[in-house]
Structures are given as C-alpha cells and as structure tokens.
Design goal:
Blueprint lengths: L1 H34 L18 E5 L2 E6 L8 H17 L6 E5 L4 E5 L2 E6 L12 H22 L2 H43 L4 E2 L2 E2 L3 H34 L4 H55 L12 H20 L9 H17 L1 H15 L8 E4 L2 E8 L3 E5 L5 E5 H5 L3 E3 L9 E8 L6 H14 L10 E7 L4 E9 L4 H21 L44
Helix pairs in contact: 4-5, 5-6, 6-7, 11-12
C-alpha cells in the first residue's frame, strides 16, 4: 500500500510540475514579445560562464553534477536532496532497478520506478557538447555501479572475502619488500667490487676522473635511490589493492591506480617511441668502441716494435693513442646526439647551451694546460725516466700527463707541476746529452789563485774516478767556469750511471765527500779567499810548482782526456 501511495503521489506531483512548467514557458514567451529589441545605447548582454557543477557523490563515487536550479531549488540543494533520496531508496528492499523516464522538466532517473533526481538541460556542460540523453545514461551507469557496491557493503561474505584478499596482498607486499632489501645488499656488494676494480681505468690525459671511495659512494647512492623508488611503487600498489577490495574505498583505490597509470603511461610511450633512435645511437657508440679497440691494437703493435712507423716515435705512441680515442668518441657523440632521447626538446637544448657556455667561459685554462701538454709531448722536451730541472725543482720524470707532469726528487718527494708553467719556464735536461742510461752530474768549487789550476783539475778528476757510480767509459771533465776577482770557479762534469733520483742525490753527496778527501790528501784547502786590502805578496804560482801532484807533468794541457758528448 505504501508503494502504491508513493507512486500516486509522484504521479500527482508530475502533473503539478508539468502545469507549472507550461505556465513558466508561456510567461517567458509573453515577456520576450513585449520586451522587443533593446533600445539604442542600451548595454549589450554579457555572456555568463556556467557555474561549477555541484557533485552528487555516493560511496565515494561521482554520480552526477548539477549546474542549474530547478523550480527555485539551487544546484547544491538538488545534490543534497538527491543524495538523501537515493539513500532512502536503497534502504528499501527490492531489485533496485535503474531506469530513465522523459518528463516535462527533463529526463528523470528512477530507482524501482521512483524518481531519484532529474537531469535538465541546465545541467549540461557546454564545453563537453554532450546531449541530454547521453548525460542521463552516464548518470544511470554511475548509479548502477553505486547500487552494486552498496549491496556489496551490506554482504558479510563480500566483506570477508575483501579482508582475506587484503591480508594476502599485505603478506605478498612484505615478502616483496624483504626480497628487495636482500637483493639490494647483494647487488650493492657486487657493484662496489666492480667499481673498485674499474675506477682506476677512468682516466683522461693520465688524470683519474674519480677516486675509488667516491665511485663506491656514488654507486651506493644510485642503488639506494632505485631501491626507494621501488619501495614507493610497491607501497602505492599495495595501498591501491587494499582500497579496491572494499566497496566504500574502491573509488579511492581506482583513482590511485589510475594516477600511477597516468604517470607511467607517458613514460612508457616515450620510451617505446625512443627505442629506434636509441638503437641507432647505441650502434654508433658500438662502432666507435670497435674503432677504438682497433686503434689500441694498432698502437700496441707499434709500441712493441712489431710495426715500424717512421712518422711516429716510440715516445709519443701512448699520448697519440689517447688523443685518437678521444677524437673518435667525440665524433661518435656528435653523430649520436640527434638520436638521443629528448635531444629535440627545449630543455635538452637549453642544457646543452648552458654546458657549452660554462665550458667556453671556464675551460680556457684547461685548454691552455692541454695545449701545453701536447707541445711538451710532441716537442720531446723530456721523456719519462729522464732527470730534469723544471724551474727550481729537480728530479726524475715519473709521469707525463696532458695537464700536469710529475717528478720525484732526490729527497723522495713527488712534485706535480702544471704543463703551462713548465712551458713558460726554462727546462734543463740532464739525461738527454749522455749516451745510454744515466744523467749528467756536475758540481762547482772555488779555489784561490795561489793553487795551480792543473793541480785542481787533476784532484777533481781523481775525486770523480774514486766515486762509485760515476761512469768509467766517459772521462770526467773540468772547466774553469769563471775567473772572479779573488778565485777561479772550477766546474766538474761527469756521467753518472744511476737513473733514480735518490741515488743521484746520494751520488752527488759521495762525490763531494771524495773531493774533500782528495783535497785533504794533497794539502789543498777548499776555500774562497776574500781581501779587504792588498796582500803583502802576490798570490802567484811559480812555474816550478805548476805541476804539483797529482797534475800530469807530461803535458801543459788540462787533464781532460775525453770530451763529454
């Protein structure tokens, strides 16, 4: 009886609504005829933007959006009344069938033959170009879904099944987190070991790009970032799965899942579209790798002597190989640049311009250092293993790089000098003028004019021959470097056989000790006299004392039997 009365009341209400709608249409037509055209100078009508839709949500799902008022009832009140009406209708027993009925005010959405709300033309969104019937059918579909989820929320079996699935998903989530943590530890150990082995190979111009500890730290940070992103994705997927299991929160879970898909879909689409160009770039880099391998074998054969190249000296084979490989990789990068993903985007172009500007502004000194290194290398100023003097530093060259040169001094110090400063200063090479291994060893002494120069020459030569480490094949030479006011300057030059810097320092010390012993043996003081007044008698050597021991009396020439080359 109650349903019958409800239907009768709804029918009578429809008649009253129809009469009111007809009267409203007649009144509007009469007002339009009497109003006529607007007077001249009257303000033109301004188009009013449609107001935002008042959402009708049920079980966290949008059912319909009301935009216009109906018979004096605002859109917000219509949404509130429709929500209460649907709630009351779903509380009644029955199949809860949703149907459409065209009425004088619009299309009525009904549940079990009773009207829930009315879709009018004022509710349509002008931007969507959706018809009234399409909007009503969309509302019916949303309402059917709401009815199904409402029935499911009152089913103990459905809720129990949802709870069991949520617990199973949570257990699987925990297992995946455990597996990810252990995989991260194993992979981190493996990658850190690989970085320790291969980091020293990352060199440019003989300079290491990164230390082992920093590379290991960088690998760990990258692995941690990937691990945390994976945890975030697993957590979001787990939350979405649990929310989708229960009727009331299902809409939230679906929205979260659709959000993830909306994020992943463009990335996957862009990655798929970039695969052909990425394969082309990888092919270019692979060809560059093959070319560098062939160049490495070519220069290795030239360095070992299996291949004779008149235009390429053995000293410059290693730097030439490095330069050739750098040129090949730069050419490959320039060729593969248009095929790199995102190279045609404005962000990529802007970043390229910024990097180029930074390099052009800040790399002038770097380019100068590299140019100086090339000049020193191909100018053959010195080689690795030679004993040189660079400005005020003296030692054996241990490494020649494109930016710096390293020498080891006789005190065990390793000094790094920039190539630009070396090129701008005077370089003394003690190893280049001697035959075979070794270097030139020289020292100076100043003896008064009252000592015969022949005797000084002979004593210096004897001291050199007594010193272990001085070459016996090349005789020492003594030069009178200067005739100062109070004493001449004698310079002893000999050929030393050691090649390491510290033996040179020890050898020079041993030579000085031998000089002192020889001079003491023959009673000659190593002294540089200076006078404040004229001496009582001239400091001259009489002819009968010109050949004091150990001077050679058979000749009047200095005791220099063999000239140093």
């Amino acid at each position: 009886m109650r349903l019958c009365r409800l239907g009768n009341n709804v029918g009578m209400r429809h008649h009253f609504v129809a009469i009111a709608f007809v009267l409203a249409q007649l009144g509007a037509a009469a007002w339009a005829q009497t109003a006529g055209e607007p007077a001249a100078g009257a303000p033109k009508a301004v188009l009013v933007q449609p107001q935002a839709a008042e959402k009708l949500n049920f079980f966290s799902r949008p059912v319909f959006g009301f935009r216009g008022s109906l018979l004096g009832v605002s859109a917000r009140d219509r949404a509130t009344r429709a929500h209460a009406r649907i709630h009351d209708q779903l509380a009644l027993p029955g199949p809860h069938l949703v149907s459409l009925k065209t009425g004088p005010l619009g299309i009525e959405i009904q549940i079990n033959g009773a009207t829930s709300f009315v879709v009018t033309s004022a509710d349509l969104n002008p931007a969507s170009e959706e018809s009234l019937e399409q909007a009503a059918r969309r509302a019916v579909s949303a309402l059917n879904l709401v009815i199904v989820e409402s029935a499911e929320s009152r089913s103990l079996e459905a809720l129990t099944r949802a709870l069991a699935l949520a617990l199973a998903g949570t257990a699987l989530y925990g297992v995946l987190i455990w597996l990810a943590a252990h995989a991260r530890q194993a992979l981190a150990s493996r990658l850190v070991d690989l970085s320790h082995r291969h980091t020293p190979k990352l060199r440019v111009g003989g300079v290491a790009l990164m230390r082992r500890d920093r590379m290991a730290r960088l690998v760990q940070l990258a692995l941690t970032l990937v691990y945390r992103v994976m945890l975030l994705l697993l957590t979001l997927e787990w939350v979405s799965f649990v929310l989708r299991g229960f009727p009331y929160t299902r809409a939230w879970g679906e929205s979260l899942n659709s959000y993830l898909l909306s994020l992943a879909l463009p990335v996957l689409t862009a990655a798929t579209a970039a695969v052909p160009e990425l394969l082309t770039a990888m092919l270019i880099f692979y060809l560059a790798f093959l070319i560098t391998q062939a160049l490495g074998q070519f220069f290795a054969r030239a360095h070992s002597g299996m291949l004779q190249l008149p235009w390429l000296d053995a000293d410059v084979i290693v730097p030439t190989r490095r330069i050739a490989k750098v040129v090949v990789w730069l050419f490959a990068l320039a060729m593969a640049y248009p095929y790199l993903p995102g190279s045609d985007t404005e962000a990529f172009k802007g970043l390229s311009v910024l990097v180029g500007l930074m390099l052009s502004m800040g790399a002038s000194s770097l380019v100068g250092q590299a140019a100086s290194g090339l000049i020193l290398t191909y100018g053959r100023v010195f080689r690795k293993g030679e004993y040189v003097r660079l400005s005020e530093h003296e030692g054996t060259v241990t490494e020649m790089g494109i930016f710096t040169t390293r020498i080891r001094t006789g005190l065990g110090e390793e000094i790094t000098i920039s190539n630009a400063s070396i090129l701008g200063a005077t370089t003394t090479n003690y190893s280049r003028t001697v035959p075979g291994a070794g270097f030139v060893l020289d020292t100076t002494v100043t003896i008064g004019y009252d000592t015969p120069w022949r005797q000084v020459h002979a004593m210096l030569v004897e001291a050199a021959t007594r010193t272990e480490g001085i070459s016996k094949d090349t005789a020492p030479q003594v030069f009178q470097a200067a005739l100062n006011d109070w004493y001449p300057v004698y310079r002893l030059v000999c050929h030393a056989t050691p090649t390491e810097p510290r033996p040179r320092a020890l050898l020079l010390s041993a030579l000085h000790a031998s000089i002192q012993d020889v001079f003491n043996t023959y009673g000659v003081q190593i002294m540089s006299p200076q006078y404040v007044e004229d001496p009582k008698q001239a400091k001259l050597v009489p002819p009968d004392k010109w050949f004091r021991a150990p001077a050679d009396k058979s000749t009047n020439e200095p005791v220099n039997k063999v000239r140093c080359p």
